[in-house]
Amino acid sequence: MGTYAGLSLGRLEVACSKNENLLSFSDLYQEHDLKSKPINDSDDERPEEWYEQSLVLVKDRLELLGYTLEYAKQEFENPSPFTDDEPLQVSFEETMGILEKADVNRVDNEFSENPIPGIFSPDHIQKEIRSTRDLRFSFNHWDLDALLENFSPYSQLRVLAESPCNSDLPVIWDFDGVVRNGWVERDRVTHGTNRKFLIVTEGSSDSKILRKAFDLLKPHIKDYFYFVDMHEGYPFTGTGNLFNFVKGLRSINIKNDVVVVFDNDAEGVLALNRCKKLELPMNLKAVKLPDLEEFKNFPTIGPCSQELSDINGKAASIECYLDLEESAMVRWTNYRENIDCYHGSLIAKDNYKKIFLNQESKDHEYDYSKLERTLDTIISECVAIRSAENMSKM
Q1: How far does CA 206 lie from the centroid of its chain?
Q2: Would you state the pLDDT for residue 136?
Q3: 165 and 203 part of one domain
């Protein structure tokens, strides 16, 4: 008979493998997601092990692997040519309308002769599923499987994540049996991803702040990102060097996934516009720190006066996205004739940077809102890269 391993959401099985043909789901998990418990009725001293994390956190990892709703729609509308089943006459939008309300906790694996309308879907959807597949069950495990059939395991998790009912359900990778019975060596079962994104910034301060922000605010996905090694000195200081780096990556057709992040200031905007003219490959993105409403009326000081100014695209360096004091102010410095605006810099920015980098854990009194939007901007670009890669392989 052999031994099975599987990936499940709650009690709904999403994927299954057998014996030495173990499917790996290491991309979904980190070290602390490994769970264990002793087996009291066994002579084997090794505890039972499995990986487990809530769907709401796994969802972000799925997106960074390119399993977006856009990709799921492509899968649904282009089913495998090797299946013997009739395609459902149900649209992706109708399917999502059902799955957005589906509570996997209510999945019933028991056989039932009589349909129970309305558990997951309207009557006509249930009739369509049964008439197409000759199923005479309530809308339970079997009918849900029919709706999910055209989705790969990761896309199944992604579409089911759209239902708030499923957010806290555990995504479990149960591999213990195939290891315990000798089909797979334990060191073959790992966690973490090797599909990482290189984040490149204008200077070492930017990289240190962004790395720390991922550690504090997005720990469940921080292993998806790595930064230029700064121990031997940062090689890309300034927008000019960073722009030349982008040109170099483009010319050698780099295979790594890279996101280059410019500051939201005059120099950064200029360099970003130059990058946009290069027609970069899909695995190389250039962005700047996001424009924010908070920066539209920001205290500034120039040679002659103080006033509230819009510093978006002119003086918003990474330090401006930290938690600033009410007295925070930008000082205008040099005028850039080629873009017709002044360049500015946050006064005492090193002090704000030091306070942030010295944090050992998340401080509930600290305002991370601007940093969170910054990370969202970077993550969005990374998701776009990986989604485009997946779509190109379909």
Answers
A1: 21
A2: 40
A3: no
